[in-house]
Amino acid sequence: MQIVRQSSFVATPWKNGGGITHEAIRVPASGEPFLWRVSVAHIAASGPFSDFAGYNRKMVLLRGAGVALNFANGEQRELRRIGDLVEFDGALATHCELLGGPCADLNLMVSKSLGHVPVRVERLKAPLPVTASCHESTLVVCIDGAVVLEGNAGDAATLEPWDLAVLSHTPGLMSRLAPFDSSMPAMAFIATLSR
Questions:
Q1: How far are the Cα atoms of 108, 130, 139 from residue 168, in angstroms, in the given order?
Q2: Which domains does the chain have, with CATH numbers?
Q3: Contact 104, 96 (CB under 8 A)
Q4: What is the largest CA-CA distance in the chain?
Q5: 159 vs 49: CA distance, rounded Å
Q6: Which range is least confidently modeled, 84-93, 99-108, 116-125, 167-176?
Q7: Contacts of the segment 32-37: beta carbons below 8 A, 24+ positions apart
Q8: pLDDT score at 80
Q9: Which of 16, 41, 106, 163 has CA atoms 20 to 30 A from the CA of 62?
Q10: Residues 68, 99 contacting (CB under 8 angstroms)
Q11: What distance in Å separates the CA atoms of residue 83 and residue 13, rounded to the nearest whole number?
Q12: Residues 67/79, Cβ–Cβ less than 8 Å
């Protein structure tokens, strides 16, 4: 189990120069092109997104009043609540409109060569099993609250907001951090990548 704390994310300019993203991890660790990358972008103003042709993009609202995404194909999606998720082709020209001030969002960029990557946002009220086979990596990002990852070997790690865990061929259990508060369930983003 690899833990990447938010405090260790590396600030990197957007490809189009319109903002800053904070990179948590990329595989491989350096160079272009990459297979996949997890980052947190801070959106201070409305404007176009960078072109990521060759990648599928998964985006989750982490902070702020939300964004409206206008795609070149005429579609529109809004992310208004923390944890709202959208998936789209990184090559599709996208204009982002802030709905009420600056926002932060989680981005998972995945090379199309890896095929379909299932992603979801879980609102955790009870322990949830998460696994990664010998041919998979499972990514867990704490969105809100805090979660505890417990491995079968007895190892455990607490994820605070925006921390990332990467599990590789390690069955594990994800649960909320005590004390349990059913009125404010923790939230986590989970993705499974084949290797």
A1: 17, 11, 9
A2: 9-113 (2.60.120.10), 119-194 (2.60.120.10)
A3: no
A4: 50
A5: 29
A6: 167-176
A7: 33/111, 34/109, 34/111, 35/110, 35/111, 35/113, 35/114, 36/108, 36/109, 36/110, 36/111, 36/114, 36/117, 36/193, 37/107, 37/108, 37/109
A8: 96
A9: 16
A10: yes
A11: 24
A12: yes
Residues 6 or more apart from 116 whose CB is under 8 A from it?
none
Beta bridge partners of 132: none
Provide the pLDDT for residue 117. 93
pTM: 0.90
Residue bearing tokens 């409305």: 46
CA dist 128 and 174 (Å) reads 5
d(CA 169, CA 137): 7
Measured in degrees and rounded to the nearest 5, phi and psi for residue 114 equal: -85, -5
Name the nearest CA neighbour of 177 among 163, 160, 190.
160
Q: Which residues pair with 105 in a beta bridge?
A: 41, 61
Give CA–CA dist 46/30, Å, rounded: 29
**What six digits make up the tokens of 75?**
């579609």
